[in-house]
Specification:
This protein has three domains: about 120 residues, no CATH class; about 55 residues; about 90 residues, Ribonuclease H-like superfamily/Ribonuclease H (Nucleotidyltransferase, domain 5, 2-Layer Sandwich). It contains ten helices and eleven strands.
Length: about 350
Amino acid sequence: MKSIDNQLKRVGKQEISHGPTCQLIQEVFPDKKIVRILACHGTDRTLGPPTGLTGDEAPFRRTIMLHRVSQDIKYERHWEQWTSLSNRQLVRPAHPCRINITVFARDHVTNASSSILSTDRDCFTTTDYSPAEMPVAPPMQDSDRPAPDTTTGAKDPEPETAGDCPLTKPVEQTFRFHSLPKWEQQQIIHMHKNLGHPSNDRLSKALQIAGYRPDVSQAALELKCAVCSKCSVPNHQRPATLKPLLDFNHRIYVDGVNWTNARGKTLQFCHIVDAGSNFHVAIATPAKTTQDIINILNQHWMSWAGPPTELQVDSGTELNSEEFARFLQRVKGNTTCPLDHWQNAHQK
């Protein structure tokens, strides 16, 4: 504690990288591998992770402190997984400390594949001492170890529930992504997370510039991230389009409609709409026959507007019969009949 007190500035937090000091703190917490150490004078709040530290490097933190009032050295009983905390919980009110030392650590890894972790940030790797010159601290006696925090304010962390720490469901990747070796898949995922979740296009372009193989850059285009899909912005509304400028009576839509009044009586109408001006006429018709449609067009439309250049109808039999085709040949008009109902949305 005295060694860290001599290294600290009067104001602000500072990262401890002195080799012997880090070794002493590692002996206090032998169950974890200490990666980074932060210390600060006169604080009553917890310390967040240092700049550049990711959750994959050191997902656990623990605090050892010199109490401001009692001048006792205390430490937290349990490791806290800070990666599952919100920003408000990450830096929250704590005990009044004259010196606050927060260590960030990870589990001891013996697998050789753990080399993907960033070892260049390990605070125990220094250039001031060689392994032979590194001073060895004397073993700590039981009486020298700091006593656990017994104050009323120190509480054991409650077990996390699904509501406090929502779990992200794993995302199933594509076949091209799974065709890569396992270590390359993990490398792409780690790069995507450490770079701040860029878009797949930007990540793939960066891999191409860096000289990665084409199959790696192509797999990055198909990367699926649960965080990105959860935090994606809503899709924009469909942009408006300008309809084509048509002369009046160049194209008309004809369709039949049934309407039931309050007394329960069903009436049939023939609806005619001009495509250029949206001018429409509705005429009651006794039945949906081809001859009735021809009489309505002659009396209520062509008598004053003339024959249209194009007439669009649906797939009704009364509008696609041979009799109706002969009628259009006499008035020199063309008819179109879309196959899908959504193409008849204007008259519907």
